[in-house]
Backbone:
């Protein structure tokens, strides 16, 4: 399994508890030393231990094997972290796609502090973009897997700051409609309990710019695919949004999953969605089933777009 989180029941202390405590302290020190070394080198980190007080039994969640979430079509350099997976495109120095899950259980957990530890992704064999590529470029380091989706523990939060999870985004796009879509997805995850998300830049169109020594592509537009496989109403929707400021509602950019697949030459969640319902979910969407927050849209137009 990609990850399984549950409560840890406190064990009764008995004979030998002193030795157990010493061993536990030793293991903890080794763990902290390893984490420190990994942070300095930019390498992947061990999963953070889960706190008994961070969740309760109602928040228990089983996570899908990441292999089940992988799209088909562009899988030449797949990288898996603890909480998401992606395919890295060396030509453009951005990912083709990234997949992850958002659950009500995680949304209900106490938020950890945002890490902002931007760093190269050493798991990318050809080398990811670097922080300096964005310096004085005029573009934001735009998250694909949002930090807000991963603030339920430190490891998940930290992973979102690999440079492989960044793409150059126009500032008013990043802080405007992209933010609005991300926040609505968390609303949907809360309402539907569990959603699957695929995100990426549209690379079938010529990038609008290139930045940095590594020639990181500035995508013309971005997409998201969201699927809810919870009974009783199984459904999916896609969004294709230009990388620029927008004063249009999210519904103006809503499309079927089939349309996103046609544009990107990808087949989303083929191992996750049953064959007998795949055509229905991917060919159709009902915006009424994906209710958006109207107040958030008004705030975006009046404030977020102007930041």
Residues:
């Amino acid at each position: 399994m990609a990850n399984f989180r549950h409560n840890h029941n406190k064990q009764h202390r008995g004979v030998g508890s002193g030795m157990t405590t010493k061993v536990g302290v030793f293991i903890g020190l080794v763990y902290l030393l390893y984490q420190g070394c990994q942070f300095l080198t930019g390498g992947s980190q061990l999963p953070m231990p889960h706190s008994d007080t961070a969740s309760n039994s109602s928040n228990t969640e089983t996570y899908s094997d990441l292999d089940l979430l992988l799209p088909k079509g562009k899988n030449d350099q797949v990288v898996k972290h603890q909480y998401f997976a992606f395919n890295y495109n060396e030509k453009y120095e951005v990912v083709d796609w990234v997949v992850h899950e958002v659950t009500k259980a995680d949304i209900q957990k106490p938020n950890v502090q945002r890490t902002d530890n931007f760093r190269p992704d050493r798991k990318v064999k050809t080398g990811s973009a670097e922080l300096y590529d964005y310096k004085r470029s005029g573009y934001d380091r735009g998250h694909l897997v949002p930090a807000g989706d991963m603030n339920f523990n430190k490891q998940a939060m930290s992973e979102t700051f690999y440079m492989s999870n960044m793409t150059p985004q126009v500032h008013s796009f990043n802080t405007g409609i992209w933010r609005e879509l991300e926040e609505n997805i968390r609303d949907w995850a809360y309402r539907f309990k569990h959603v699957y998300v695929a995100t990426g830049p549209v690379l079938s169109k010529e990038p609008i710019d290139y930045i940095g020594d590594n020639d990181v592509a500035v995508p013309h537009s971005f997409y998201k695919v969201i699927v809810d496989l919870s009974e009783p109403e199984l459904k999916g929707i896609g969004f294709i949004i230009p990388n620029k400021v927008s004063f249009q509602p999210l519904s103006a950019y809503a499309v079927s999953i089939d349309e996103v697949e046609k544009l990107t030459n990808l087949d989303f969640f083929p191992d996750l969605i049953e064959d007998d319902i795949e055509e229905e979910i991917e060919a159709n969407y009902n915006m009424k089933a994906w209710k958006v927050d109207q107040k958030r849209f008004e705030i975006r137009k009046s404030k977020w777009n102007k930041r």
Remarks:
- The chain has eight helices and 13 strands.
- The longest helix spans residues 17-41.
